[in-house]
């Protein structure tokens, strides 16, 4: 063979005249004539084998030359032939290369065949890839699927592409370098193959799962080229170039580099790629946004695949930690985390490995304070993975734990969530013990420290008795401190218990048990060799040390062990302190408005409770009210948490599981309030709703069949001995009534002479639990008895008769405590009967009237039969319009209302007790017994529920009790009762709303808590209109009681969900809180406003508030009010539009700028606006700041503003301008309310125009009002 084939740079170069002995294409076949030539090519392949490419290369080249015009079938046939040629060469070359007798012509012939076939196959593959991508792009609007028309053959390209790659890999894996002279493979041949590979990698779907075979084929083909054909440098450069333009290739190239470095042994490729990335400056990375993301993703993915191979080049990557790209900083931190978890971990590290490990940990800790929140969050997540993998050294625990607790205060939500997750991982994997208790750890540390200090005396004091005598004084002080109460509350409790002998005996028994435990602990620390539970627990974390062999000599190993024990206990104590601090901070996050943070906090509380951490129950109890949250995600999280902690019993048998469940719920109910019990009921109800549904059919029969047993056992002669059991029995019976079961048929009721009602009416006794039993008993009477009012009358008569008999025997009422208790029971019974009588009329009687009416209508309809068509149509139309049912229901409701207003309190037994209730409530000096006062107040409120007339007659008395009662429980009950009355008679209670809000400032925390709870329900349910009195709720945001603060925060979180509610209220809240008469400190004002302004997120609301607050500078008369307004402005998230409005209102506050309290907040606004601002806007901010500073330093009269120049040009006098800047205070009515700082309002009598700043303006009106405010102010002054 006299010619050589050179791989061309361009396809067209092969038809040009070449050099000496260079192959040139002689015949380019037209597209229409190609099929016969392909047939010849195919025949030659069958007869001659793969060397036929030497004669038919022009045919393949012609297809390549006319690829845009040739038919698809011709291209597919050509591709198939070329694949067969390459595969044939791969099969025949091994024997040829192994042969020793090969001539130069034969070697040249094989080489030309290889280069020709590979060249045509690679170029045709690139053509098919381009056509495939073009077709998928064109067909994308058709649902994202490739159409059948216009490209049927390309549908199989994915499978054909794999065959091409497989053939190339088989060929290039052979040692074909010997075909070239001196085994130097020409660069053009390598570039031809690599360009084809990189072209295939540009496919957008190459990273998808379906493309895995293609992706693996490309990776292995490039691996062969890198290993055997010197493509190392070219691959490194190409990886960087493609990453800059194709972000989706980051994971593909990470996988490729890991395969090349491990399976092909080319570790240098990692250094090449990382070095290329490391040499990129911060400026270059800033210009290439997409490239930075791809680089960061590539580094992180590569670090997770081969962390041990990244370590030699880690110094290059660490330089990016000082760069501006936060994505690169995140990636490098993740690589460090992978190295620490998978490489630099364990006890087998040498000194160099330990130094690298400590250096990497220090680097990660530095970036816990990174300027970018995303970096801080990811570093916390890296630490979470390290802790979960148990790769964090023991010496680093306290340091990292402290940093994690500090990140709980971060402004970023993601950082806070990550910090909570890290702290949960610390507790779940802590190496100190499964139960973290600071007090126990501190005591053990003190004892161990005493033993350690006296170990040095063993050379002198050899006898154990002498050693004990030396340690005894300090041990005595330590043990005494441990046995004494640690807090004032415990001391007070102990003093109270000392009064009672039984309590003393219990304390003695507890101390008797505690002392041996302490002595045993000291004995274990001093003389044992690790046989007890605590020592075995410590030995799991401490390296083994030699035990002492002689009784009288203490070896150095024992002393070292004692030192390690002391250090271990110190670390444990530090860890316990940090855990307690974390719990206290995270517990406050349970009522934040961010759902994801609340979910993480709930999960953390579950974790600490599962590991029995001290004070963990506080968080579990605090999150319990969240079961009523309107956010379903939070509610579900709480329900699942309690199911996991208390409703998921463990045990082998059903009985064991049942006992465990009862014990868990009993533990939760210890010292539980009524609210806690209701929350648990809601959780349990959600858990057993399926069980209730399954047993609802047979429930009534089960209870009725055992009704006699319940009456004889729980409600019989011994009922007075256990009213709690009687109450539970009554509640069980109530569960079968129609009110609970929502039955639609005839009401289920028992006759009056039933044994059940006889037992209930006879059960009267002087017992503290009688009232709770009585409330449930009266409820059952009205739910289940025929004519319950008659039974309740008998019950009232019997109770009153017993009271009169006691009075006759005991003397005056107000001097006998027993009589007061009996009277309190009677009045409580009266109120309960009055309440359930009204409920009986409005629910049971009304429902029965509707049922009977329905039955009557159905019966009449059947008796009447078919009527005229017209009458039927009219009746059907009336039913559709709801006229028939509506008129009948109105008549029934009017009847019930008339009965309540005229008959319930007219000449019956209930009316007899009303004057007595009024007398007891209005004479607290005469009737001062707490139980009597409480019962009378509650009963009076229940009487007031009967009718509007009764409510109006006694409403003033009820509010007087609310304000003047000395008993907090009476005031709290009055608030609840008045809340119910507000729902029932809103028009009557509306003028008294201010008195309800006044209880928010009550001196007793329980009253404030009740007030904010009731008002929250009334406001959120739209019973009370939201007005300026909400400022009293805002004050509770700084309440000293954390629970009240949480309730106030929850109130505003819920209120913020209502459109513009907080936005409309803010101006009035600021006015009220800034009132000098209130005397609120600036720090408290700032704290409240910071929380309230966090709800203002809309740009238009911010803009409007800027104008409102600026206008209020004119009505503010004190320096403190000016400062508060300026501080409020600085709390707004101001944007460009808000800043423009601030400039427009310059005249409102410019004369106040000499005050530092006004100037500094406004200056902070400009500093905040300047960050990240564009050049033009930044110039405006700088100019405004100069004006502020000039007026502050020299005064307004010495600074000429642009507005003054404009006004002067228009002819406005300077004197008028001065009046505009500092208006004279208005006289008369504007100063009669709430001091000087009031929202001016229009007078109803005078028609003079006056400026108004109503906080209830709608958002849409703000733009219209802003243009004529100055004109209105002029008119006000002239008037």
UniProtKB/TrEMBL annotation:
Residues 969-1129 form the Condensin complex subunit 1 C-terminal domain. PANTHER family: CONDENSIN, CONDENSIN COMPLEX SUBUNIT 1. Residues 482-508, 531-557, 849-874, 1201-1262 are annotated as: Disordered. Residues 1228-1248 have a biased composition (Basic residues). It is found in: Chromosome; Cytoplasm; Nucleus. Residues 485-505 have a biased composition (Acidic residues). The gene is ncapd2. Regulatory subunit of the condensin complex, a complex required for conversion of interphase chromatin into mitotic-like condense chromosomes. The condensin complex probably introduces positive supercoils into relaxed DNA in the presence of type I topoisomerases and converts nicked DNA into positive knotted forms in the presence of type II topoisomerases. Pfam families: Cnd1, Cnd1_N. Residues 74-235 form the Condensin complex subunit 1 N-terminal domain. Coiled coil: none annotated. It comes from the Eukaryota. One of its GO terms (cellular component) is nucleus. GO terms for biological process: cell division; meiotic chromosome condensation; mitotic chromosome condensation. This is Condensin complex subunit 1. The keyword Nucleus applies.
């Amino acid at each position: 063979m006299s010619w050589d084939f050179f791989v061309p740079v361009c396809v067209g170069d092969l038809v040009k005249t070449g050099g000496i002995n260079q192959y040139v294409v002689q015949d380019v076949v037209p597209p229409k004539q190609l099929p016969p030539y392909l047939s010849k090519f195919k025949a030659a392949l069958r007869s001659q084998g793969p060397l036929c490419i030497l004669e038919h290369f022009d045919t393949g080249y012609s297809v390549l030359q006319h690829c845009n015009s040739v038919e698809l079938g011709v291209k597919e046939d050509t591709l198939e032939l070329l694949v067969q040629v390459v595969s044939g060469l791969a099969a025949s070359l091994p024997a040829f290369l192994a042969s020793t007798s090969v001539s130069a012509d034969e070697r040249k012939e094989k080489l030309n065949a290889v280069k020709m076939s590979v060249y045509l196959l690679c170029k045709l593959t690139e053509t098919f890839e381009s056509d495939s991508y073009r077709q998928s792009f064109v067909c994308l609007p058709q649902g994202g699927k490739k159409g059948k028309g216009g490209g049927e053959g390309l549908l199989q390209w994915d499978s054909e592409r794999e065959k091409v790659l497989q053939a190339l890999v088989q060929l290039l894996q052979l040692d074909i370098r010997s075909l070239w002279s001196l085994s130097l493979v020409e660069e053009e041949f390598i570039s031809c193959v690599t360009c084809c590979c990189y072209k295939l990698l540009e496919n957008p779907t190459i990273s998808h799962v379906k493309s895995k075979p293609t992706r693996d084929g490309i990776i292995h083909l490039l691996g062969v080229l890198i290993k055997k054909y010197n493509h190392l440098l070219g691959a490194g450069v190409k990886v960087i170039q493609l990453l800059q333009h194709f972000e989706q290739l980051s994971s593909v190239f990470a996988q490729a580099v890991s395969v090349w470095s491990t399976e092909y042994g080319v570790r240098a490729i990692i250094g090449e790629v990382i070095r290329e990335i490391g040499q990129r400056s911060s400026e270059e990375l800033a210009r290439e946004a997409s490239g930075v993301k791809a680089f960061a993703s590539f580094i992180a993915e590569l670090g997770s695949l081969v962390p041990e191979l990244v370590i030699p080049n880690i110094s290059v990557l660490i330089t990016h930690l000082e760069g501006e790209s936060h994505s690169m900083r995140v990636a490098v931190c993740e690589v460090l985390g992978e190295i620490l978890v998978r490489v630099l971990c364990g006890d087998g590290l040498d000194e160099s490995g330990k130094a690298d490990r400590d250096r990497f940990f220090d680097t990660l800790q530095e970036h816990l304070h990174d300027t970018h929140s995303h970096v801080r969050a990811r570093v916390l997540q890296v630490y979470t993975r390290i802790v979960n993998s148990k790769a964090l050294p023991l010496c680093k625990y306290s340091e990292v734990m402290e940093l994690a607790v500090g990140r709980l205060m971060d402004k970023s939500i993601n950082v806070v969530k990550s910090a909570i997750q890290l702290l949960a991982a610390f507790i779940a994997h802590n190496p100190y013990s499964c139960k973290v208790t600071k007090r126990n750890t501190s005591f053990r540390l003190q004892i161990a420290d005493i033993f350690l200090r006296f170990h040095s005396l063993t050379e002198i004091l050899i006898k154990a008795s002498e050693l004990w005598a030396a340690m005894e004084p300090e041990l005595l002080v330590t043990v005494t401190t441990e046995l004494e109460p640690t807090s004032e509350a415990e001391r007070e409790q102990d003093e109270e218990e000392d009064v009672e002998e039984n309590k003393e005996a219990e304390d003695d028994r507890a101390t008797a048990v505690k002392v041996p435990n302490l002595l045993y602990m000291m004995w274990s620390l001093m003389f044992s060799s690790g046989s007890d539970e605590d020592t075995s627990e410590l030995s799991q974390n401490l390296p083994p040390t030699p035990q002492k062999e002689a009784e009288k000599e203490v070896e150095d190993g024992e002393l070292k062990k004692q030192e390690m024990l002391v250090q271990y206990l110190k670390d444990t104590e530090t860890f316990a302190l940090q855990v307690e601090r974390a719990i206290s901070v995270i517990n406050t996050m349970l009522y934040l408005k961010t759902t994801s943070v609340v979910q993480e906090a709930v999960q953390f509380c579950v974790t600490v409770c599962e590991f029995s951490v001290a004070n963990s129950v506080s968080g579990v109890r605090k999150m319990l009210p969240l079961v009523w949250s309107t956010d379903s995600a939070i509610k579900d999280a709480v329900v699942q948490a309690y199911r996991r902690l208390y409703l998921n019993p463990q045990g082998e048998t059903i009985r064991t599981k049942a006992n465990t469940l009862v014990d868990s719920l009993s533990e939760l109910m210890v010292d539980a309030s009524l609210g806690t019990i209701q929350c648990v009921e809601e959780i349990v109800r959600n858990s057993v709703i399926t069980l209730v549904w399954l047993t609802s059919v047979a429930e009534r029969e089960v209870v009725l069949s055992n009704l006699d047993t319940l009456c004889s056992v729980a409600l019989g002669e011994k009922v007075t001995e256990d009213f709690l059991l009687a109450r539970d029995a009554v509640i069980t019976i109530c569960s079968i009534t129609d009110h609970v079961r929502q039955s639609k048929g005839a009401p289920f009721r028992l006759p009056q002479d039933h044994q059940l009602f006889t037992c209930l009416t006879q059960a009267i006794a002087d017992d503290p639990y009688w009232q709770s039993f009585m409330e449930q008993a009266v409820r059952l009477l009205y739910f289940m008895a025929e004519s319950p009012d008659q039974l309740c009358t008998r019950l009232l008569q019997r109770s009153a008769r017993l009271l009169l008999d006691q009075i006759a025997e005991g003397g005056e009422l107000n001097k006998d405590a027993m009589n007061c208790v009996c009277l309190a029971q009677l009045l409580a019974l009266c109120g309960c009967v009055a309440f359930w009588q009204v409920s009986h009329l409005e629910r049971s009687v009304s429902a029965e009237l509707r049922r009977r009416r329905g039955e009557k209508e159905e019966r009449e309809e059947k008796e009447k039969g078919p009527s005229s068509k017209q009458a039927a149509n009219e009746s059907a139309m009336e039913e559709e319009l709801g006229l028939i049912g509506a008129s009948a229901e109105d008549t029934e409701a009017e009847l019930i209302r008339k009965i309540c207003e005229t008959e319930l309190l007219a000449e019956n037994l209930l009316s007899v007790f009303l004057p007595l209730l009024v007398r007891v409530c209005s004479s607290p000096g005469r009737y001062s017994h707490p139980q009597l006062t409480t019962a009378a107040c509650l009963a009076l409120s229940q009487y007031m529920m009967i009718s509007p007339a009764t409510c109006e007659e006694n409403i003033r008395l009820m509010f007087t009790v609310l304000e003047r009662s000395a008993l907090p429980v009476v005031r709290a009950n009055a608030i609840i009762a008045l809340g119910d009355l507000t729902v029932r008679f809103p028009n009557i209670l509306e003028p008294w709303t201010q008195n309800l809000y006044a209880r928010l400032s009550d001196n007793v925390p329980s009253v404030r808590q009740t007030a904010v709870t009731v008002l929250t329900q009334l406001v959120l349910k739209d019973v009370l209109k939201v007005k300026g009195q909400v400022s009293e709720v805002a004050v509770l945001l700084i309440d000293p009681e954390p629970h009240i603060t949480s309730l106030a925060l929850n109130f505003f979180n819920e209120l913020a969900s209502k459109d513009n509610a907080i936005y409309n209220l803010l101006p009035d809240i600021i006015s009220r809180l800034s009132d000098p008469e209130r005397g609120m400190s600036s720090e408290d004002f700032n704290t409240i406003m910071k929380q309230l302004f966090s709800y203002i997120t809309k740009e238009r609301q911010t803009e409007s508030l800027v104008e409102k607050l600026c206008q209020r500078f004119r009505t503010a008369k004190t320096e403190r009010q000016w400062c508060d307004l300026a501080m409020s402005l600085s709390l707004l998230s101001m944007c460009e539009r808000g800043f423009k409005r601030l400039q427009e209102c310059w005249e409102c506050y410019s004369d106040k700028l000499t005050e530092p309290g006004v100037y500094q907040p406004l200056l902070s606004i400009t500093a905040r606006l300047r960050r990240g601002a564009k050049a033009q806007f930044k110039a405006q901010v700088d100019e405004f700041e100069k004006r502020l500073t000039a007026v502050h330093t020299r005064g307004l009269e010495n600074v000429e503003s642009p507005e003054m120049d404009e006004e002067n040009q228009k002819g406005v006098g300077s004197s008028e301008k001065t009046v505009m800047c500092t208006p004279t205070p208005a006289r008369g009515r504007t100063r009669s309310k709430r001091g000087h700082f009031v929202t001016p309002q229009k007078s109803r009598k005078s028609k003079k125009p006056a400026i108004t700043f109503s906080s209830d303006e709608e958002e849409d009106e703000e733009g219209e009002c802003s243009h004529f405010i100055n004109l209105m102010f002029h008119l006000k002054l002239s008037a």
